[in-house]
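Supplementary Note 3. Input sequence used for the single-chain structure prediction.
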Amino acid sequence: MEALHEELPFDLDFHPSSPLVVTSLITGELCLFRYGPESQPERLFSVKAHKESCRAVRFVDSGKVILSGSADCSVLASDVESGKPIARLEDAHENAINRLVCLTESTIATGDDEGCIKVWDTRERSCCNSFEVHDDYISDMTYVADSNQILATSGDGTLSVNNLRRNKVRSRSEFSEDELLSLVVMKNGKKVVCGTPSGALLLYSWGYFKDCSDRFLGHTQSVDTMLKLDEETLVSGSSDGVIRLVGILPNRIIQPLAEHSEYPIEALAFSNDKKYLGSISHDKMLKLWDLEELLNGPRVVNGDEPAEAGSDDSDDDSDDDAMDVDMAATSSKGSRSKKAGKGQSSSRPASDFFADL
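The predicted structure, written as discrete structure tokens, is reproduced below.
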């Protein structure tokens, strides 16, 4: 199943209970589609949500609201049935918003082009946490509920661990040779896997974030997006347009699952029941794949690469209290976000936004 956009899509998200998928475009538009097993995705609406590119989108409030973040520095809440704006926060960040993730039913996190992460609590109707730990754009974030922490990767080549309960940065890795573009937490929380422009996957042991413990060289091009399938395997989207099934410890490319196109894959997402895998690419196409068919397809092992030995790789990793804290990094890569664009801010308070929401 597939649907063509008029312009480049940046992000997508599936509805938590209904067969709906939303995409955000470089033009600032939001597009909502209904999908089914017997037909192509049906476009329900396409609305101009932001003045500049809409880089991040998520369903919130049990799927009643679409939340989007933009290069115009705003966060917008839109009605899922009509696409009409419910509330807008114009000055959410001082710089363009690059990532938006849901933490709990009442909290979200946003990351911008200058490395700032903000956490918004809808119950308090304000920004409750702010972390200025990175020197370049926030490329990806994930929430670890057990320890109430946000893990973030950045274009500055570092991984950070941000504790929400204590409102402090618990750890930050040394600068890697590459930008860090994507991340997933694997092995029951014991390993953090990060994708890079060179195609290498960097594996960090939980509690030892100074440097990666393994470096897996199975991809030939940039790993821009990843999804955790289970504790042993992940799905990667690469700039060569190929979606792959990847095993972690042992590290191997299990099989190529599909080829979206010859263009880079921008984002991947699972449907709420994990029946479908959604992908968007620079070919402007949204594609929905039957995940079971992909996994049961021909198993073609694609050049297993041995992992480079690094620091201790055992599963006897320490808990949160034993984490390294290294805020004094030695140098910066100085790289810039691939999604350029700045916006303007306004004086509307954050409390008004969440009061409306």
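The helical segments are 291-295, 350-356. The first strand starts at residue 2 and ends at 4.
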